[in-house]
Give the backbone structure.
Amino acid sequence: MYVAVKGGERAIDNAHALLAERRRGNRDVAELTVEQIRNQLPLAVDRVMTEGSVYDPELAALALKQASGDAVEAIFLLRAYRTTLPRFGYSEPLNTETMQIERRISGTFKDLPGGQTLGATYDYTHRLLDFALLAEGETPPSLETDSAPLEPCPRVLELLNSEGLIEQSPKNDERPRDITREPVDYPAERAVRLQNLVRGDEGFLLSLSYASMRGYGDSHPFAGEIRSGQVTVELVPEELGFPVVIGEIVLTECEMVNQFHGSKTEPPQFTRGYGVSFGYNERKAMTVALMERALRADELGEAVNFPTQDQEFVLSHTDCVSANGFVSHLKLPHYVDFQSELEMIRRLRREAGKQENNAPASAVEEKTV
Amino acid sequence: MTSLQTLSSQASSLKTVDASLLIAGFENPVAQCQQAFRQLLSATSEPGTLQTMVATDAQPAGLNTASWSLALSLFDADCTVWLSPVLAAQPALVSNLLFHCQTRLVEHADEADFALCNADELDTLQPFSFGSAEYPATSTSLILQVPALSDECSLSAGSGWTLTGPGIKFSRHLCVAGLQDSLQQELIHSRNRFPCGIDCFFTCDHTLVALPRSTQLSIDQPIDQPTDQHSAQES
Amino acid sequence: MSTPQMTQVEGYNFAYLDEQTKRMIRRAILKAVAIPGYQVPFGGREMPLPHGWGTGGMQVTASVIGTDDRLKVIDQGADDTTNAVSIRRFFAKTAGVETTEKTADATLIQTRHRVPERPLQNGQILIYQVPVPEPLRFIEARDSETRKMHALREYGAMQVKLYEDVARFGHIATSYDYPVMVNGRYMMTPSPIPKFDNPKLNGMPALQLFGAGFEKRIYAVPPYTEVQSLDFDDYPFEVQQWEESCAICGSDHSFLDEVITDDAGSRMFVCSDTDYCRERAQSNREQAQENEQ
């Protein structure tokens, strides 16, 4: 006699044990430490912190270790941990003009006050596999450069501001809505859009930015400035009433300059797109800036012709944790829904069979939820 | 009615905690908040049923046990509360709400997620938010402290209603004492504005009864009463 | 079968969520109950399970559950499917509550894709996991638009969609996630339950709560509330029927799963509701023993 499939509990336990074993890999090879991941895979750590919305390199490194290096899984781990943390307060807005700059470049001006600094970048490396690393040779210590810390310097786009050539950055003292505490409602205000983009999946935003630059959008930007470095975080405790420094974090910031053709009331001027990320995640900061600008099409009175300019389309699909969850839920059993469809299709075919000349009715709308 | 607007400014002058007025909240907040919520959930899903709320040893002056229990379980820093003039003038109540719930007190009733009020102070629902057709859930929930509550309609000076609608199999009787006539009329007529509306919690001593906007009200004719009856009187 | 009381997991609050989050969800649930069928937006949190795997239902359960509750979790009607096991364990671990597989013994039932066959009682709470809470989503993708359609009670597009099926197939071809009207006001998706289960929603004595995690919506149907499946006068709503009976308990009136038993494609049908099937099979055995004596 048939017995319904049982043993879900044991199957799950076994799966967890196998997973732990596979994660550890060959036990003849030394186990990777969280400290090694944190120090030697810093860009992976930066991505996990940015999309995980927690600035904590150690936890991000732990998440990467636990996730066997799968960034999306690691981001999920960090997010789930974040949910349980109590909220003590909100920091003051960061002042990136006072950033301890480690890298600063501009695509719009050859030279500018404060200068350009290449810093550590993969940009001009020739992408040749370095077999010295395969041999596990130590990298030679870095060259001594004129390594005096760079002075804080004004943002490049402010230079255009003095001529009135670029729009004013909209000032808004309203407390921004926190998208991790409140549901998003469309159309969404700028603070919500930016939060959503910064937490958004890097690959998705990169491809959308690419599409918008290729013509599926109206993006013809210049990289006004990209800067990376340390910024201090300040908090105003209620009982003190003045700001105190609670720590320093590394940020990468990008401001894009876009053309705006002007309107009846406004002469032509440049517009901005802003992006930021934790750590040295420059690709992310750039794609956020590109998409931020693309999503302003509506407010600037530009035609919204492409998905890249459509708030609800872009913002509802950026989140890798949601996207991954919903796609992967197809792995869950759907016997009941499928059985319902089977019954329906069989019935339709039976009836179609009765009417000889009819083609079989095989097209029932497909929908899996 | 004028008193509502003019006197509400008193609330702002009282938005500080006076430590000498503080009393204990729930002894076991996690479990008791959950129990109180389940009672509120039963009350809302079966309008007109009387709930005896989880109690604390004492309540701040001005609040009855049921209102205090509701406040401890639902209010916090993420929601706004409006106090009626009489309640806003109770320093112990204000101090304890701020201390235990960290709730944000607001001066304008239409900005409030919750409004706390005594029945004899309220003759209209107009000051509160009814929500909008697209966002009906942004409405104000009203907690009205009344002198007596019963599901049998024999209270003197009480409004007797027959309730029908979601959560009610056939019909239920509810009698709320101390409601002003104009408020009663507005409550009945506000049903036409569904899905916009005000969800009410009537409280008396330990007892709470919910009257969500989905419940239809008709004024009772003196007819046979249901068998399952309870009542509460202000102690 | 109930598992013994387990201790709560260290370092996390009772039922995982922090109290402030629970209060936010509780306030949303009360609003949802007061406006039957309306989807209340709430500040959905990240859960330690993937979106689409029941995080909405879990957040509702975590906000409702107390130490006195007995929890049953089913997926596709079964207590023993891996995801049901995983969610039941989560609450046994984080809330230390008693769990059960018996529908009659449960105070809370979290479900994915089925309503139990045994009629639920007043006082029980049925919590549905909902992937897509918007019944109009596959007609209109934009939330900003569907919100207006609900506000204006503008549901003609759904009637048109169903009628297109009638024109094409001679039937309404929607077989699960079949839209309903709640209390004559809001169109609601009952979640992807088979339409076989739709009639059970109407006038159910138990409270029904629906949680959609990544769409951040909670909605509810209070007890004894009218829930009508959409249909047409000339094409009335009808549910699935099987020519077969359950191979285990012989039921000819429950929702059946089709099981393929060999390479030649032989198949048999068994109840999808495992508790109902077990109960019936047991009572059949007892009946048989009595008859022998």
